[in-house]
Structure formats: C-alpha cells, structure tokens
C-alpha cells in the first residue's frame, strides 16, 4: 500500500528536510516516528525539500508499507512519536504510481516579512525582517514580471540540482498587513533558494534601489551574481502542494498566516 501524508513543522530546530549524516532533519524525525509505530523500516519521499530554518504547514510525503492500518491510525500513531515541532495532519491511501514530488501540479510558498525599524522578538525564527521602508505597489509591479513560463537561473542557488531552471510561475502576489508583508508564490516547481532569492530582489526594488523592470532584466540575463543576496530562511513556509483531482487527495489548505498577527492586521 502507498500512503500520502500531509505534514506541518516548525523548521527552526532542524537542519532542513533532507536526511543527512548526523540526523536532526525533519525527514529523520518523521521516518523514526513512522518506524516506531509500524515496527518496521519506513522511507518517505517529500514534495519539497525545505532548507534549514524553513517551515511547512502543507508538506506532502508518501511511503510504501505492508502494514494494514486505518488512515486515522497512521495520523495518531505518527504524532504519538513525533517531536512537538512536527505533526501529521492527514493520511490518505493513494495509487501505486502516485509520487509526492513528481505528481504535484504546483507548490505554494509564502514568505512573511516584518517591515519596521526594529526587529521582532516574539516572532523570532518565524518571520524575516527588513528595516528600511518598502513600497508595496512598486514590489508588486516587479513581481508581475515573474508570471508565466520563465528561466529562473538568476534566482537559482549554485548547488541547485534541478534538471532545468525553467518553471511556470502561476502566482506572485504581495500583501501588507500593518508591519507584515506577505509574499505568495505558486509555481510548477521551485529551484533551490529560489523564493528567498526572489524576496531579496523584490525587497531591493521596494527600497528603491532598482525599478520594477530590473526583475525582467535579471530573468533575461540569467546570472545569479546580478540579483540581490539570498534572504533569511526564517520567514519561508511551504503552505500547500496541489495535485490534480484524479489522485483523490484532500484539497490543499492554506493557513491564513496574517491571523497569527492580530496586532499587525488590526485585529
């Protein structure tokens, strides 16, 4: 049987998703919990390999097992053995040819940025921060250049292992809630550090260092050295992975993060 899980986690205390020597990754924690529940080895495959310090509210994984348990038991069993910073939200049986990564139609990442002169204490590790004033309209005009099928080489980390830098950007939207800026990006797939590199360059535009058209110039040049530095990991969340209806998975839910900031949203 192949099973898909939706997983959420606070990435602050982990060395990223991907299993590696020395442990302390989200994959290590999840596999260990599933193995303790199933009493046999379990290997999981994720939809998006998040970096150290990056969070998720809608990560999707799959694994194969010969253990016959109801789906709710997989949720309760995994959560019993998971650390407090990781939780399984649902489990669903899927077809044998389902693949959490390659079957995904799109991924939705959200970046939360506090924009005020002083840094945050309460939300440390949960948001990015930029102290200079940022112009929302100018940044949105720049983000509009990202839409469609594009070569994102200018926003690709040097160690990226993707076969192609060409991705389809379906959404690039920025909203302001008081001091909180919310960046939403949805694409067919993302390159290593792509969202954090996009945020860094959009922030430069918002500060007035470059006009909105600079983003189009960066895309055309395809040179990572010309773009802004990579932004901090703390504000980045994988909020949803979408699949076509024939896979039968629950609809992707997008957590309304501004609700976590009532003092910023005027609540």
TrEMBL record:
Residues 6-101, 142-243 form the Pseudouridine synthase I TruA alpha/beta domain. The active site is at residue 51. Its EC number is 5.4.99.12. It comes from the Bacteria. One of its GO terms (biological process) is tRNA pseudouridine synthesis. GO terms for molecular function: RNA binding; tRNA pseudouridine(38-40) synthase activity. It holds the Pfam family PseudoU_synth_1. InterPro entries: PsdUridine_synth_cat_dom_sf (IPR020103), PsdUridine_synth_TruA (IPR001406), PsdUridine_synth_TruA_a/b_dom (IPR020097), PsdUridine_synth_TruA_C (IPR020095), TruA/RsuA/RluB/E/F_N (IPR020094). The keyword Transcription does not apply. Keywords: Isomerase, tRNA processing. Substrate binds at residue 109. It catalyses: uridine(38/39/40) in tRNA = pseudouridine(38/39/40) in tRNA. NCBIfam families: hisT_truA (TIGR00071). Belongs to the tRNA pseudouridine synthase TruA family. Formation of pseudouridine at positions 38, 39 and 40 in the anticodon stem and loop of transfer RNAs. Homodimer. This is tRNA pseudouridine synthase A. It comes from Candidatus Accumulibacter affinis. The lineage of its organism: Bacteria, Pseudomonadati, Pseudomonadota, Betaproteobacteria, Candidatus Accumulibacter.
């Amino acid at each position: 049987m192949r099973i898909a899980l939706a997983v959420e986690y606070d990435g602050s205390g982990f060395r990223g998703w991907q299993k590696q020597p020395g442990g302390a990754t989200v994959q290590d924690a999840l596999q260990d919990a599933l193995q303790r529940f199933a009493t046999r080895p379990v290997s999981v495959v994720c939809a998006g390999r998040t970096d150290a310090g990056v969070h998720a509210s809608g990560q999707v994984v799959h694994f194969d097992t010969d253990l016959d348990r109801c789906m709710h038991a997989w949720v309760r069993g995994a959560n019993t053995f998971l650390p407090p910073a990781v939780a399984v939200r649902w489990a669903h049986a899927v077809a044998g040819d389902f693949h959490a990564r390659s079957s995904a139609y799109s991924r939705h990442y959200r970046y939360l940025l506090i924009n005020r002169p002083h840094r945050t204490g309460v939300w440390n590790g949960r948001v990015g921060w930029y102290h200079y004033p940022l112009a929302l309209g100018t940044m949105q005009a720049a983000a509009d250049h990202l839409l469609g099928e594009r070569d994102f080489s200018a926003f690709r980390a040097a160690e990226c292992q993707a076969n192609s830098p060409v991705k389809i950007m379906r959404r690039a939207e920025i909203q302001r809630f008081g001091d909180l800026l919310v960046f939403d990006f949805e694409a067919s797939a993302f390159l290593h550090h792509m969202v954090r590199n996009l945020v860094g360059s959009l922030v430069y535009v918002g500060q007035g260092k470059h006009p909105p058209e600079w983003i189009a110039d960066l895309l055309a040049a395809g040179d990572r050295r010309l773009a802004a530095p990579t932004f901090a990991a703390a504000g980045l969340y994988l909020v949803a992975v979408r699949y076509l209806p024939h896979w039968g998975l629950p609809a992707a839910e997008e957590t309304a993060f501004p609700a976590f900031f009532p003092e910023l949203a005027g609540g």
